[in-house]
Amino acid sequence: MTPVELSRTVLHAVRRAVDEGQLSVAVPERVVVSEPGAGGCGEYATNVALQLARAAGEPPLKVAEILRPRLIAADGVEDVVVTGPGFLNFRLDRRADPLQELVREIRGRGERYGHGDALAGQVIALRVPYEVRAEVVADAVVRIVATQGGRATVEHGEPVNLRPVPAPEDPAPLGPDAARWALLHPAPHDRPRVTADHLVQREGNPLFRVRYAHARVRSLCRGAARLGFAAEPGPLDTADARIKVGAGFDTSIGRAVLPALRTALSDHPRILTAAATHRAPDRLARHLVTVADAVLPFVTCVLPIGEEKPSAAHQARLALAEAAGTVLAGGLSLLGIDAPEHL
């Protein structure tokens, strides 16, 4: 179970306690899960009981005890221990591989991975000026809000509530994909760069890195098919992940690459929720760059090398690469940008 999954599990437990009348509180939008502090135990901990106690009119320890049985019953949780004034500490099922579970979740949900109900039932009225960047940002916000169960409408008129810094010139000559990226990638308060740099196919261009990473993943899938094997989630041995460095391969880098890739993928639901809540597609755009930068060093170890025969390890690596490609494709789609099969 990943921290993001555990956070959702805690939120679900709070909702159940509220629905069943044991807690009378507003369910928070998110719950922070982190490593246990001094006096804690297990792999993760949360202070949600302390946060809810005042609104619930109950001591934090009682709130924690109300949530504890619901959390112990969750898949992937082995035990929950209450420590201090009401911290909930989690010991996870050691038989479960968090990265393997994450890959299975992404494969199961496809491009809907990260979609949730944080804005369920909400209608957000966007009022924008007649300006190309505002129009493009609003279009992306409509798509992203829908991923969280909400609905956004766009109209022109005062008072304007969505007004990013306008583009200095018409971005249309860049083409639809580069133009949208140029307007969506910067934060709303930053002046966008409408230059041909967005068309250059090199590492310094973030859009190129994102689209290239997706194309590389699709190329791996085609290569695996030619070699007669397909993706299958399974154990990933970091010591066995050989990352290409120059003319050779370094096994030690795999220990750093896999955690970075796992973090980038597990953060995707949180980023989508934040982008929807704050009407900020730039957060999603920058997150896609993080995913691309995490998967690109990994792709060199996915297919068999030299005389190697395809193995379960190669199937597991391909499944992880595919998961990253799914996140990239889904994110680009929400921004209205094409995810190419070839580049």
From TrEMBL:
<keyword id="KW-0436">Ligase</keyword>
<dbReference type="GO" id="GO:0006420">
    <property type="term" value="P:arginyl-tRNA aminoacylation"/>
</dbReference>
<dbReference type="InterPro" id="IPR005148">
    <property type="entry name" value="Arg-tRNA-synth_N"/>
</dbReference>
<dbReference type="GO" id="GO:0005737">
    <property type="term" value="C:cytoplasm"/>
</dbReference>
<keyword id="KW-0547">Nucleotide-binding</keyword>
<dbReference type="Pfam" id="PF03485">
    <property type="entry name" value="Arg_tRNA_synt_N"/>
</dbReference>
<feature type="domain" description="DALR anticodon binding">
    <location>
        <begin position="210"/>
        <end position="343"/>
    </location>
</feature>
<dbReference type="InterPro" id="IPR009080">
    <property type="entry name" value="tRNAsynth_Ia_anticodon-bd"/>
</dbReference>
<feature type="domain" description="Arginyl tRNA synthetase N-terminal">
    <location>
        <begin position="4"/>
        <end position="92"/>
    </location>
</feature>
<dbReference type="GO" id="GO:0005524">
    <property type="term" value="F:ATP binding"/>
</dbReference>
<protein>
    <recommendedName>
        <fullName>arginine--tRNA ligase</fullName>
        <ecNumber>6.1.1.19</ecNumber>
    </recommendedName>
</protein>
<dbReference type="InterPro" id="IPR001278">
    <property type="entry name" value="Arg-tRNA-ligase"/>
</dbReference>
<dbReference type="Pfam" id="PF05746">
    <property type="entry name" value="DALR_1"/>
</dbReference>
<dbReference type="GO" id="GO:0004814">
    <property type="term" value="F:arginine-tRNA ligase activity"/>
</dbReference>
<keyword id="KW-0067">ATP-binding</keyword>
<dbReference type="InterPro" id="IPR008909">
    <property type="entry name" value="DALR_anticod-bd"/>
</dbReference>
<dbReference type="InterPro" id="IPR036695">
    <property type="entry name" value="Arg-tRNA-synth_N_sf"/>
</dbReference>
